Amino acid sequence: MSNVEFSDKILTLNFETEVNTMKIAVVGFGAAAIGFVSEAIKKGHKIHIFERSKDVYSSSISGLRSDGKLFVSKDMGGDLHIPIEIQREVIDYYTSKLSETDRKNIKTGISFAKDSEYFEIFYSKGFEPVNSRFFHIGTDKLASVLKKIYDEFMESKNVKFHFAVKIDNVILQDGKIKVQSENFDDMFDYVVIAVGRSGHKLVNRIAEKHPELVLSGNVVDIGIRYEVPNHVVKKLNEEMYEFKVKMRTKTGYMVRTFCNNPSGKVVLEKYEDFVTVNGHSNSMAETSNTNFAILCSTSFTEPFNDPVGYGSYISKLGNILAGGRKVLLQTYEDFVKCKRTKKIGRVEPTLPNNAYVLGDVNLVLPRRIALSVSEFIQKLGEVVPGLAYPDNLMYAVEVKFYSNKLDNGKYENLKFIGDCSGHTRSITYATAHGKMLAQNL
């Protein structure tokens, strides 16, 4: 499905230029692009959206394809200052695409509200509780939300989608920008890169040519997806839906929980040449387990400048040990004893058995990360004893990639938004980032 017109070598785009409008290229169709386009179309600019996937149903949008958890918070989502009112506008935008019935079924919660009985308990054990308000749409509703947004954009005469087009290069040239792919070569007044974490190759290619764009690039989050029986965290889930805590471990690493999925499923997150583990929850269908990530924020010093490459290497190592595009699964007890798991206990995996291999996660995680994760789980068990049951499940690896932090002030007509900019880590912040950029056009 594409509105692209090909010649043998060059793609010709047929928008008429109007006075005071720009010809804009948006590379990628994810949360950040949605935020940008939803505002930019109000100003009459001619917008071309390039997405490497074949159509909207298969578009490579990680956050908007799995789980769809939104939040309003000052303390998570990236290092940008996103006003609370803008975050709320983002929540309203996405939830408005649901039917009235589905809106009523949105699961909400507040992580560590002021009157939470858990705040002091976690705090006393060395954790830093994180306050946030959550809105969980559900994986099963995301496809219809995305399709409705796409249909609304298509109704505008100023927006054209180009699917199955993988942009390979962006070249600054005489005040304009050339955008290229294998069969494409055209000039634009303004280019927005919104390729998310999976588009790191394009971002790195641009940064190599323009090192002045890079502010920093030394962080990657590596860890595991942890799965426990629902009854262990029943009270936590009922009060908060998602509990967010972080802690500085003895290794010096900051470890945090991420993406809690009550009655959810563990899933694979697929990249071109490796797979990692993730989790989600549907709005209605439920399992008997809860899963969440335990991630270790790893920072490096010069000359290191490839956090995506490091995380990819760890991910591929896990796949090699699992015998292909699979992940490793181990019980918590065996992980602590550095013993390969050969048999699981009382907790049944929600990830299909053809997607994992029983093994030893210690063979994948670097030692400091393994020690940090172990200490973190032990401390969780001191707050909620069941969180350290010996037969709880650990899937490896889970990796959250963050691009180099890029300077959007270097060029007036080349911008990076969302997770590929290195400044956001969530649907809410990425969408708001795009929205705010477009408002300032």
Question: What can you see in these coordinates?
Answer:
- With 441 residues, the protein is α+β, with helices and mostly antiparallel strands.
- The chain has two domains: 23-65 and 142-216 and 404-439, FAD/NAD(P)-binding domain; 107-136 and 218-401, no CATH class.
- The protein has eleven helices and 23 strands.
- It has helices spanning 31-40, 84-95, 100-104, 118-124, 139-154, 200-209, 234-240, 307-321, 332-336, 367-383, 427-439; strands at 23-27, 46-51, 69-72, 107-111, 128-129, 132-136, 159-163, 169-173, 176-181, 184-188, 190-193, 214-216, 219-229, 245-248, 254-261, 265-270, 275-280, 289-299, 327-331, 356-358, 393-401, 405-406, 414-416.
- The strands form six sheets. An eight-stranded mixed β-sheet has the order 5-14-15-18-13-21-19-20. Strands 7-2-1-11-23 form a five-stranded parallel β-sheet, with helices on one face.
- Strand 14 and strand 15 form a beta hairpin.
